[in-house]
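Task: sequence in, structure out. Protein: SET domain-containing protein.
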Amino acid sequence: MKKKPYKHTQSYTRNKLSTKRKILLGELHLSTGMILVAIKSKNFLNVTKSEKPNGPFSSWVNFLVTSFAFSISPSTLVHRTTMAAASDRRMRAFIRWMKHQGIDCSDALLISTENSDASRPPSTSVKALCDLKEGDVVATIPKQSCLTVRTSAANHLIDEAELGGYLGLAVAIMYEKSLGPQSKWFEYLQILPPFEPIPLLWSLPEIDSLLSGTELHKTVKEDKALVYQDWKECIQPILDMASFELNPDFFTVDEYLAAKSLVASRSFEIDEFHGFGMVPLADLFNHKTAAEDVHFTSLDSISESDKDIESRKENEYDGNDIDDEPTAPDFHAEIEDLSQSDLEISSVAGDESTYMEMIIIKDVKAGAEVFNTYGHLGNAALLHRYGFTEADNPFDIVNIDLDIVVQWSLSLFSCRQSRKRLSFWKKLDYCGCVSQDSEYFEISIDGEPQVELLVLLYIMLLTEEDFLELDLALSAMGKVRNDSSFGLLTKENFLLTKVLEANKKVLLTQDVCRALSSLADARERLYGPKSLEEDIKSLNECCQATDPKLFHSLILRVSERRIIEKLRLFAASGSGISITAEIRKKRKRVDRK
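Result:
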């Protein structure tokens, strides 16, 4: 069957949209002056019926005036109004800039800003002004309009400094910011926040107090140290390049951290030639886990020569490009597929230039927000890279470091026996997940441990007689130890072939399940003296708008600790041990939450 070609959406002008649709989308806003006058008046609640505005917004005005009167001071409202007006001006300038750069954004999309917190930059979202169908092309973006190390005015500086990858892109952003209105991307940079509030930008006391025990605590502290080293070794030296006359105020550690936060949260892989870059318009779509309205793919441009690609590879300087760790963390392989999104961005080779298309891959109703999905990411990955979390995230996991398992073994067995059993486990070609210099085991959202952990615990707990017999069998097998016939030699020899997830129940002896419970306790202690119930109470009392760092760190802590609780329940159920009343109580509590 011939594939149906993608089609451009029909052009819709906003002045032709029905009033009902505009109301739905928030296109018609209340007069700021009306609200200000109402609040400044001593008798704003006693407005007569004849003085109330007519039309569909009458009830909205009364509600907003009352709400503002009790919750927002006039000075705060004036400040918010000023910020909103400035944000609107920047957005209008950006839309004009997109047209000038050849970025074609469909009239079926509405880019809107909202400023709910005066202390933070306005948030941006993209909504559908009409029904969008699968295959609709809602935007085309020339690659030359993207901010990359290739297109930036800093490309010669980056090449001379032998920078590349994420580090080079961060330098490109800092350099373009230093140019001010002279930058090609000035209007685009104006609509971006100065930085994204990812943990990398938190202070060390905040990291220690808010992330203690979580998957991010150690990672973020290591990242922060690497970033400072990165700046000292790679960024500071370029300030001494007299030929470029850089303004040092735009290349400080804080500016570098801010640029890195934008790269971490907003960059896309464009193609082989450009590498990663900032893609105007594409980075305005908000994320929603498992909501694939928008799909992202990037194909290599056929117009790029092999010589250009080879030249780019030669100019990359991997030795100092330690950015991969803070800005592109693997989070223990959580980031599986960055192409999982609602909107597809694919490269298209035109006659004169190469551009990308943004394609709807799922029907979207009028008035609905159009989401981009960054991938199947747990809350640790979302917070680390994007600065936010999601409640009830189905992709959450918890890790148990190999060091915790070793410490548990040393508490029961001699150091010699523990080392011998661990070495044997590795001889069988088992290993945990590896990230940087650490090895660990994943616990799924359902509380089920990795099979490799179960095998290790099983081997650790074998009697000496059974272990010696297994060791002899391994030696006798030699190169043919994967032969399944050897699995019949003894009751333990099934370990000599890879244990699959499907038959891991055989590993769940009472001793192994008790070990799992002990490991859960050890992992739980990393969170400190506060209980899960206390964390949940703190979360319920926390306001995301006023204290986002605490809010998102509590979401992460609670989600991880619930998984640990489920690991205990898994251990109790798998062992066949009678579940105590306390465990039953915890099971009900976990399920209810």
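Residues 290 and 373 are 7 Å apart (CA to CA).
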